[in-house]
Specification:
- By secondary structure, this protein is of the alpha/beta class.
- The chain has four helices and five strands, in the order αβαββββαα.
Length: 179
């Protein structure tokens, strides 16, 4: 919450100088692992949100449209929305590009714009830093891999009701404590 508040304030401030059509964030951070920064920024700015984006298919600035591929359970969704938008990108979706030596030296001479809370337009300091973050992460870990593989059900000429009933019966047989 604190991070999305601070970043939304800074983006809003940038928007006063120039239009902000597209905001990129990662899927989630590695410290808190809550995946709430991107959605929090989009909500605070009142802009469209597309999550788990794996590829930008088309960006039409004149038509103010954006088409992306989004990874979802069971496949890939093709989504289209209007600008401005925020998209959370999946890892591994961009190819690293390296600048030439001249460009690196030129970039090294550019001044870095440093922002204070006032520069970013943050009005309520109780909403930033540890004071503004109700989330406390005590431990981050990856799930343990399952040894059991998924069951494959072959459906030939059965109707949908028969398949559903058989599946439910199998689930309740394997897990008798489910209600």
């Amino acid at each position: 919450l604190a991070t999305s508040y601070a970043l939304a304030a800074a983006i809003r401030k940038i928007g006063q100088e120039q239009a902000v059509d597209l905001v990129f964030t990662g899927k989630q951070t590695i410290d808190g692992d809550t995946a709430q920064v991107g959605p929090g920024i989009a909500k605070r700015l009142g802009i469209n949100l597309l999550t788990y984006v794996s590829r930008i298919v088309e960006l039409d600035l004149d038509g103010r449209r954006l088409r992306v591929e989004r990874r979802a359970e069971g496949g890939v969704q093709l989504l289209e929305t209007t600008l401005p938008s925020l998209i959370t990108m999946l890892e591994g979706t961009n190819e690293m590009r390296f600048a030439s030596m001249d460009d690196m030296l030129r970039a090294g001479r550019c001044p870095v714009r440093k922002w204070s809370k006032d520069d970013a337009g943050i009005e309520d300091v109780s909403k930033i830093g540890l004071k503004g973050s109700p989330t406390i992460v005590s431990k981050v870990f990856g799930p343990t891999p399952r040894s059991q593989k998924a069951d494959l059900m072959t459906v030939a000429d059965s109707n949908v009701n028969d398949v559903c009933l058989n599946l439910l019966q199998k689930i309740f047989t394997q897990h008798p404590t489910l209600e």
